[in-house]
Amino acid sequence: MVNSADIFISTAQRFLCCGNKKKRLSSLSCLDVAVQILAVDLGLKPAFLYDCNAASAEQLLQYLNSLQDAGLLTTILQVVSIDGNNLVVNSELMKSHLAELISERRIITVDVCPWKEQPAICDMESRSVEMIKAISELFLNKADKDSSVCMLPEQMYDQWNLCTLFGIILGYPATYWFDQSQNFENCLKMTPLVVYKVWVCWEAGDKKHCSCLYSFSVPEILWSEVHAYIQQWTELLSDRFSKQKVLTELSFSQETVVLPSVAL
Asked: Which domain of life is it from (predicted)?
């Protein structure tokens, strides 16, 4: 009997190839993608940003549909393309996630404009809420969830900061903002950053694969201000994790790093 890990691997190598068809994703890369897809399917994260290779949104949709046909997914997952970036979205979880952000008014946004002496939490509530409402109304509610890719037209997001947008969509407890109308630089160069990661394992047959489920950073100087909220976010994730039996060994790690440059 073929185990589910082998099906995930063969399906990814069949549908997620690009360029030279002989260059397939490695088995480890396929398993990393599988864990992310399972996490979205199980409601452990609202979305997954696919960046393993240059596979198209249509290829990603074929991959998901094949997994669905094989009975390996419990939810119809949506493919959303924003500015050439392809995301796999759990639409129902995303709706509740965005609604919660709006109702509770807890959107931690860190201003990292390059002219600032140091990063600072900024009041982006009204702008972020406007963006979140637009996301909900314009692609989550109207998209064809099981037969096509939802493409966000550029005029919808050309004034949005994509770094902030993706942080919100991916379910991070904190996200960065900079004034992209000026430039795309930031003030994080040589700034101590607390890198927070969430790890899980997946045991499928004779294969056990550990993968990073979330990874985000917060400037160390702001850690005391955001720590309580991140702890609350961690507890909520732990509660959701306890309600499923597919992924195991949830763990958290953090380290402080200082980098010569940080790309957002």
From this structure: Eukaryota
